[in-house]
Each structure stands twice: as C-alpha cells, then as structure tokens.
Amino acid sequence: MNTIRTTLRPVRDEESATVLAWRNHPEVRRVMFTEHEIAAAEHAAWWTRVRSDADYCLLIIEHDECACGVVTFSRIADAADCWLWGFYLAPDAFPDGMERLRAWNGMEVASLAYARETLGCKDLRCEVFAFNTAVLQMHMRHRFSESRRYMRQRGDAELEVICLAQTLQHKAPP
C-alpha cells in the first residue's frame, strides 16, 4: 500500500499566479476575512510584502507531491514564540472528498510540526468564522481549544469569529 504524504514547502515566485487563482476562487473567498476578488496589482503588492517579511511564512501544501493549497504563519507582534496560522486548500485539487479530507488532515499535522519544529512556536493561534464548522471540527480534533469569540464586519454582514489556540509541546532534549 502506498502512503500518501502531505508536506509543506516554501512557495516559489513562479507560483504567484496559481496562489492568486486559489485566493480568488469563490469557495476560498467565502471563508476568508476579505471576500472581494483580488486584483493582480493588489496580489503583487501582497506577494512582495509577505515574501520579504521575516515574521510571515508563506508555504505550499503538497499532497502526494502535488501542490494543492497554502499555509500561512504570521508572528504575533511582541511574542517571539506565538504565531497566527491560516490555510486554504485549492477547491479543484481533489477528485473526491475522501482524498481532500486526507490532505486536510495531513496539512494540519504538517502545520503543527512546522510551527513547533521550524518556527519554535509555543502558542499557535487561528481564527475561523463560526459558520465554517468543518474547519472548527478539524482543529478541535487536533487539540485546539476555543479562546474567545468576536464579531467581524465583512462586506454588509457582521460575522462571528471563533479564536482557537494550542500550546505546542516541545520534546525535551535527550
């Protein structure tokens, strides 16, 4: 039986257009904090900014060696070991729901490991709209806990956001 692995790797400059297409997909925009279609110039400015920011990590999710989404980590100001995490999967990357679920679960495991081992993160946080129950359930299965809720204006709607956090366990030195 072949084991399909989900990994994270740094984004490449030639992937900018692909990332923009994923960001602009209606299914991705539906769950993002900004829901407008992102223009090429706006994306280019964002791309330049995040690619040069030492407190921001932009990673590609690969499932079975196929690029299928994005993971972001942004350091929370004044907290060297606290990061805010986000992700999205490319909506058209998987022919069936089970493979998407495997990639999603693998991405969550890989993200927790990356935060702990590469970033030295001790406190990982994320924010999810309350209506996005599938993502909330996945995070809870991976030991995130709710830390607070707040309301956020998006377009004409006021939406509830659930803040989640996890204290990452570091291995003791041998």
How would you portray this structure in words?
- β4, α4 and β5 form a beta-alpha-beta unit.
- The longest helix is centred in the middle third of the chain and has 21 residues.
- This protein is of the alpha+beta class.
- The N and C termini lie far apart (34 Å).
- The chain has a seven-stranded mixed β-sheet with strand order 1-2-3-4-5-7-6, with helices on both faces.
- The radius of gyration is 16 Å and the shape is globular.
- 21% of the residues are buried.
- The protein contains five helices and seven strands, in the order βαααβββαβαββ.
Concise description?
By secondary structure, this protein is α+β, with helices and mostly antiparallel strands. The chain is 32% helix and 34% strand. It is built from 5 helices and 7 strands; from the N terminus they run E-H-H-H-E-E-E-H-E-H-E-E.
Secondary-structure topology with pairs:
Blueprint: E1 6-10, H1 16-24, H2 26-29, H3 40-51, E2 56-63, E3 66-75, E4 82-89, H4 97-117, E5 123-129, H5 133-141, E6 145-154, E7 157-167
Parallel strand pairs: 4-5
Antiparallel strand pairs: 1-2, 2-3, 3-4, 5-7, 6-7
Strand percent estimate: 25-35%
Overall helicity: 25-40%
> How many DSSP helices?
5
Order of helices and strands: EHHHEEEHEHEE
Cα(first) to Cα(last) distance is 34 Å
Alpha carbon gyration radius: 16 Å
Structural class: alpha+beta
Shape: globular
Instruction: Provide mean pLDDT, rounded.
Output: 90
The main sheet orders its strands as 1-2-3-4-5-7-6
- Care to count the β-strands? 7
Major sheet summary line:
7 strands, mixed
Uncertain stretches = none
